[in-house]
Write a structure and sequence with these properties.
The structure is a single chain. Strands 1-2 form a two-stranded parallel sheet. It is mainly alpha-helical. It is built from four helices and two strands, in the order H-E-H-E-H-H. It starts with 6 loop residues before the first helix and ends with a helix. Helix content is about 55%, strand content about 10%. Strand 1, helix 2 and strand 2 form a beta-alpha-beta unit.
Length: about 70
């Protein structure tokens, strides 16, 4: 799946809507997640970044995971 450009805005809006109702959601994002797109999603409120291809296709999977965890 490709990353959708409006994902960060939708994540932030979803988190805000849930919190307005007293909720504390756990938000996961999948599809085109890498260090660049994850850097957009994490500050918007994503708790989990699902990054299969980014990790398993990387020349150094451990470095790819470390880059995502640093977000």
């Amino acid at each position: 799946q490709a990353f959708l450009p409006d994902a960060a805005g939708r994540i932030a809006a979803s988190r805000a809507a849930c919190r307005a109702q007293g909720g504390d959601p756990h938000i996961s994002v999948a599809g085109g997640i890498n260090a660049e797109t994850g850097a957009q999603c994490a500050p918007a409120g994503a708790d989990w970044l699902v990054a299969g291809s980014t990790v398993f296709a990387a020349p150094d999977p451990a470095a790819a995971v470390a880059a995502l965890r640093a977000l």
